[in-house]
Design goal:
The chain is α+β, with helices and mostly antiparallel strands and 286 residues long. Helices cover 15% and strands 34% of the residues. The chain folds into two domains: 155 residues, Gyrase A, domain 2; 66 residues, Aminomethyltransferase beta-barrel domains (Elongation Factor Tu (Ef-tu), domain 3), CATH 2.40.30. It is globular and about 55 Å long. The model has no long low-confidence stretch (mean pLDDT 93).
Length: 286
């Protein structure tokens, strides 16, 4: 059995959504399927603006008495206020959770298998290779503590975006953040805020910008550095970890890279690639 690694995600905060109307309330607002979550089940989704852009993203965990939202701590209060705005007369309570509960990321080839903890431990619903998330008071036994950067290196190597680091909340569509690729959007469910715009992009296949992987032979330049393919600007660098990174790329402008055109981030030569788990490909080069 390989060693399991564990990092506390101190930049996360938990909200509790409870009350008899909680399932219907959340299901009608967020991008993912909430009504069919079993107790202990976990999903990843977002609350969008009416224009279809990501305002907040989060994990949703079904608990015995409602739901837990695992979200960016810096935005948790604003998320609670936005949910309260939509509450109207629904029988729903929205409140911060007991701060004794912490969020941990656990990864390694065994994922969550074999982890015993006093709380919820579930595989990351986006991609199994990401490992598991644990909502517990202390790190589980038989895991090795790792710094936060080790966790980011792991997710960057897999090509998994993170809101606030790889894309700007309020300015990014779900397809650009790859939410259509890892079940962050349920295209079979009914209406939710921003659903019309997201569905139109899906059915027309008009998602041109995507967060994809970047690799260099040396260290990559900082986030925000312009990316060029064959001298044409096509995007910007996002998260980096050594020689691996992510970049928000206009695929149509970068398509010639797939057939040999050189790519650079600033003056650094790079290679762009689409994640192995993604279901989209390079468009034909113009």
């Amino acid at each position: 059995m390989s060693e399991l690694l564990c990092t506390e995600l101190a930049g996360r905060k938990l909200l509790r959504i409870s009350g008899e109307d909680a399932p219907r309330f959340l299901h009608g607002l967020v991008t993912c399927d909430v009504e069919h979550l079993e107790p202990g089940g976990i999903a990843f989704g977002a609350l969008l603006s009416p224009q279809g852009k990501i305002l907040f993203d989060f994990f949703i965990i079904r608990s015995v008495n409602g739901f837990i939202l695992d979200t960016d701590a810096s935005m948790a209060d604003d998320l609670a206020k936005r949910l309260t705005f939509y509450k109207l007369r629904a029988k729903v309570q929205i409140e911060p959770m007991d701060e004794r509960a912490h969020v941990f990321a656990i990864w390694g080839s065994e994922g969550a298998d074999g982890i015993v903890a006093d709380g919820v431990v579930a595989f990351d619903p986006r991609l199994k290779e990401m490992g598991a998330r644990a909502y517990i008071r202390r790190a589980p036994p038989d895991t090795r503590a790792e710094p936060l950067q080790a966790w980011h290196s792991h997710r960057i190597a897999l090509g998994m975006p993170e809101g606030g680091l790889d894309f700007v909340f309020g300015s990014t569509f779900p397809h650009e953040a790859l939410m259509d690729q890892f079940k962050g959007v349920d295209f079979q469910k009914g209406c939710y805020v921003g659903q019309e715009v997201v569905s139109r992009v899906q059915h027309r296949g008009t998602a041109r910008k995507r967060l994809i992987k970047v690799e260099g032979d040396t260290g990559l330049p900082e986030s925000g550095t312009e990316v060029l393919v064959d001298g044409t600007a096509c995007g910007t660098m996002a998260s980096i970890s050594g020689r691996n990174g992510l970049a928000m790329i206009r695929l149509d402008r970068a398509a010639s890279h797939a057939t040999g055109a050189p790519a650079h981030a600033g003056t650094t030569e790079i290679r762009l690639s689409i994640q192995s788990w993604a279901r989209f490909g390079w468009p034909e080069a113009e």
